[in-house]
Design a protein that fits this description.
heterodimer, A: 346 residues, alpha/beta, Rossmann fold, four-stranded antiparallel β-sheet, 12 helices, B: 325 residues, eight-stranded mixed β-sheet, 28% helix
Chain lengths: 346, 325
């Protein structure tokens, strides 16, 4: 297994002390707002109290609209942002205590698949140079060794014949091929965790499925943990075991993929499912029920449940007063909504 | 919806080629389709199939390297291809046919207030004075659901959904016969996208406007479609009524395209289409889909004509040569 080489760097990746591969522990990421360049003017609460675990070899999907904090969450997991409070514990390393050389080590163990392949690849570098760079930075000095690693990974992402691909520039490849290069670059350091940020949203429908299958195959053959970030619920079914829905910086629902799609609990999840369509001519005859308004500002989010101003099941005196805790409705299915408070119903 | 509405726009044998150093790029190559009053025709296809060029060809918004540009576009009883550029600009563009360009939310002028921007087409194309134009702008913005106090704001102060609504108001303010929407929702979130689709459904009924919706998102396209045209490599390979197209597409390409859509409510595995669309610089002779087609046979080396099936469905494929097929 390719994972064995990662272990040689002195880190162990077992769950020996009971920790999963990745634990997000009450994570808060706040950005400070400055007035006139100095002077405090409040915080943007991009991620506010998120927690979940991810085991080696599992895929989890994160669904939410733009501005819900999913990118901040992802950047923090990648080690590009630091937690404001709470922590990201990856491979037994708490991110909040990691600095300098350790931080570089930390980052090299997580692969990142960007959204827009064309924007993510430097136009003036050949594919070989693009794939070589992470290896050079991480101290693989032997050119032959690098070549072997790159060839292997390109074959895995099915960019063959390898010798023809290597001297090409990104613009000479199609969108799907560019996305394969991005995936190859994310995989070239043989990471344990892959963060895929909307990896197929810029691609044509006919290529999308191909790329999703490739990611799935890589996940299985490398026993990778994958965080799949998307706003498109229809692609989630083919990808992940677990799924969580974010709204305004918080997780509102967390469940197994099948449970969430077939038995959604939170009103916001309902709305998302209602708004996603399958190709069907009858769609043209019905109006979809969409919650009024727009996602709130994260500088000054609504008190208590952040969805309450848009919620069709709003309960005065409860939803706008008390923060809903995460109610466990069944095993592996939790939802932050007062509708599922059994104690109140009696 | 079953009774026949009058035909507003008829496109016949439309061609638009671009001159490049490598030769002519056949972006739109002999396109035929009809658009009826109060209906929406959806043009679906992958990127690079020429669907945006088709929109530009209809509105005669040609880039500098446009080469061959011919065919017929009948707007009611007038062949607008016969007009010269100046009268096309005065009589047709925005007055009769308008457009919401791709990524319209980023196409708004950043230094103009929303109200002025929406009023501008009415002043330029309908010769209204400023006051009247502003009145119709306000009416249209109300119609598309932009709050009136946004009138004096700039584009950057609005959310994506509100900007998209403003762009739509700009296209509708002159009450044109036809509005071309080029990927109107591709950059938006799911909920915003659904509410914009709701809005367009309402507009279609309230304003007696016909829409041409150009998109690669097949699932969303079904929200508005009365008719569907599938475009591949510069040509339309299938046209037909949406209610019959979505359950059972005819052309092998339409079939593959539909099968590639991930479904939310069904558990069928999606399939991808092997290979890549051909270059439009030098498209293959005969059927352009033949190299990727699972049902290819000898005849495919010749170009198939359009066959009529099930009344008014058209399909460009040799498989439908026999009436029984």
């Amino acid at each position: 297994m390719s994972n064995d080489k990662g272990k040689a760097n002195g880190t162990t990746h077992t769950n020996g002390n009971g920790l999963p591969l990745l634990r997000i522990d009450d994570l808060h990421v706040w950005y400070e707002l400055k007035r006139f360049g100095f002077g405090h003017a409040g915080y943007v609460r991009a991620v506010d109290g998120v927690r979940f675990d991810l085991q080696q070899g599992e895929a989890i999907a994160c669904v939410g609209e733009s501005g819900c904090g999913k990118s901040s969450l992802m950047k923090t997991i990648l080690g590009l942002n630091m937690p404001t409070s709470g922590d990201v514990i990856f491979d037994d390393t708490p991110l909040s205590e990691t600095r300098g050389e350790d931080l570089r080590q930390y980052r090299s163990k997580i692969g990142y698949v960007q959204q827009d392949p064309f924007g993510a690849l430097p136009p003036f570098m050949t594919i070989e140079r693009i794939l070589e760079e992470p290896l050079i930075i991480n101290g693989m000095t032997d050119k032959e060794q690098r070549r072997v690693r790159i060839t292997k990974i390109l074959e895995e992402v099915k960019l063959t014949p390898v010798n023809e691909v290597l001297p090409k520039y990104p613009h000479m490849l199609s969108g799907g091929q560019q996305q394969r290069v991005v995936i190859a670059r994310a995989m070239v350091m043989e990471p344990k965790l892959l963060v895929a940020d909307e990896p197929v949203s810029m691609l044509d429908a006919s290529v999308r499925v191909e790329i999703l299958r490739l990611l799935r195959k890589l996940q299985e053959s490398h026993n990778l943990a994958v965080i799949y970030i998307t706003h498109d619920l229809s692609t989630v079914r083919y990808f992940s075991e677990y799924i969580f829905v974010m709204y305004a910086g918080e997780i509102v629902e967390f469940a197994r993929m099948e449970d969430l799609l077939n038995n959604p609990k939170h009103p916001y999840t309902h709305a998302l499912l209602e708004a996603s369509s399958d190709p069907n001519a009858d769609n043209a005859l019905v109006m979809r029920e969409i919650p009024k308004g727009e996602p709130p500002s994260l500088v000054n989010p609504p008190p208590a449940c952040r969805f309450h101003p848009r919620c069709p099941h709003f309960m005065e005196g409860l939803c706008n007063v008390k923060v809903p805790p995460q109610f466990v409705v069944e095993e592996h299915h939790r939802v932050a909504c007062w509708l599922y408070d059994d104690s109140a119903k009696g | 919806m079953a009774q026949e509405n009058e035909t507003v726009l008829r496109v016949r044998n439309l061609r638009l080629y671009f001159q490049t150093r490598g030769g002519p790029v056949q972006a739109v190559d002999g396109v035929d389709f009809d658009l009826r009053k109060n209906e929406a025709t959806v043009i679906i296809g992958e990127s690079g199939c020429g669907k945006s060029s088709l929109a530009k060809a209809i509105l005669r918004l040609l880039p500098r390297n446009a080469g061959r540009y011919d065919g017929e576009i009948w707007l009611h009883d007038q062949n607008i291809m016969a007009l010269n550029d100046e009268s096309f600009r005065k009589e047709i563009r925005w007055r009769r046919i308008s457009m919401v360009p791709q990524a319209a939310m980023n196409a708004l002028n950043p230094v103009m207030k929303i109200g002025d921007q929406v009023a501008e087409p009415a002043m330029v194309h309908l010769n209204m004075d400023e006051e009247d134009a502003m009145k119709s702008a306000v009416r249209m913005l109300e119609h598309v659901g932009v709050p009136i106090d946004f009138l004096h704001r700039y584009a950057f102060e609005l959310s994506g959904g509100m900007r998209q609504r403003s762009a739509l108001a700009m296209a509708l303010v002159t009450l044109p016969d036809v509005v071309i929407l080029d990927e109107p929702t591709s950059a938006l979130d799911v909920l915003t996208q659904a509410s914009i689709m709701n809005l367009m459904k309402r507009m279609k009924h309230e304003l007696e406007t016909s829409f041409i919706l150009i998109t690669h998102d097949i699932a969303t396209s079904s929200e508005l479609a009365d008719n569907v045209a599938v475009m591949y490599a510069g040509q339309i390979v299938e046209v037909g009524d949406a209610r019959r197209f979505f359950p059972k597409p005819l052309h092998p390409y339409s079939h593959a395209l539909m099968a590639s859509v991930p479904r939310l409510r069904e558990t069928i595995e999606p399939e991808f289409i092997t290979g890549q669309p051909p270059s439009l610089l030098n498209p293959p002779t005969g059927c352009r889909f033949k190299d990727r087609c699972p049902r290819r046979f000898e005849k495919c080396d010749q170009e198939p004509p359009m066959y009529t099936r099930e009344g008014d469905r058209l399909v460009k494929c040799w498989l439908y040569e026999q009436p029984s097929a």
